[in-house]
Amino acid sequence: MVVLNKIYTRTGDAGETALGNGARVAKHSQRVTAYGTVDELNAVMGMARLHATGDMAAAMARIQNDLFDLGADLCRPDMERDADAEYTPLRMMPEQIARLETEIDAANADLQPLRSFILPGGTPLAAHFHLCRTVARRAERETISLAAIETVNESAVKYLNRLSDWFFVMGRVANNNGADDILWVPGANR
């Protein structure tokens, strides 16, 4: 359980922050950039949830919780030393990816196949989902950049990849199951 009785500590005033293993790193490090972008995605999802109800809102709440799990995973380097940790580090699991895939497949089954790219927009929820999708893609790129220089849980990268697909499909669902999608018309304004 996390207990925060003091919000500011002044320990980051010199441009460093602590990782999950206690190591201090620059706030501009690739690891901090990756989990910071995941945090940004979670905040953008919070805005999207203002427009969601029922099962969609419940699915989004689960994903927001997953994003905190993902941030915890990314802020803890040295996966090979997980067994030596004081407590079991939180890592993304294949089951979390499988749940997204199941939800994508179920939602996509009711949608007409695309014949064009979709312009972000439509309903407020769909527009927010498109913003979530682009932030998820950036979080994925930042995490892949981190994986090029340090060890990263492969399920973290896969989760972000699948999550951006989830946002795309749910954006279509939010647009009256794709009926209100705004389609790209190549060269329309030439």
Automatic annotation (TrEMBL):
GO terms for biological process: cobalamin biosynthetic process. It catalyses: 2 cob(II)yrinate a,c diamide + reduced [electron-transfer flavoprotein] + 2 ATP = 2 adenosylcob(III)yrinate a,c-diamide + 2 triphosphate + oxidized [electron-transfer flavoprotein] + 3 H(+); 2 cob(II)alamin + reduced [electron-transfer flavoprotein] + 2 ATP = 2 adenosylcob(III)alamin + 2 triphosphate + oxidized [electron-transfer flavoprotein] + 3 H(+). Gene3D superfamilies: Cobalamin adenosyltransferase-like. It comes from Roseinatronobacter ekhonensis. Its main location: cytoplasm. It comes from the Bacteria. GO terms for molecular function: ATP binding; corrinoid adenosyltransferase activity. One of its GO terms (cellular component) is cytoplasm. It is an enzyme of class 2 (transferase). This is Corrinoid adenosyltransferase. The keyword Ion transport does not apply. Its EC number is 2.5.1.17. Belongs to the Cob(I)alamin adenosyltransferase family. SUPFAM superfamilies: Cobalamin adenosyltransferase-like. Residues 7-174 form the Cobalamin adenosyltransferase-like domain. It is found in: Cytoplasm. Pathway: Cofactor biosynthesis; adenosylcobalamin biosynthesis; adenosylcobalamin from cob(II)yrinate a,c-diamide: step 2/7. Keywords: ATP-binding, Cobalamin biosynthesis, Cytoplasm, Nucleotide-binding, Transferase. It holds the Pfam family Cob_adeno_trans.
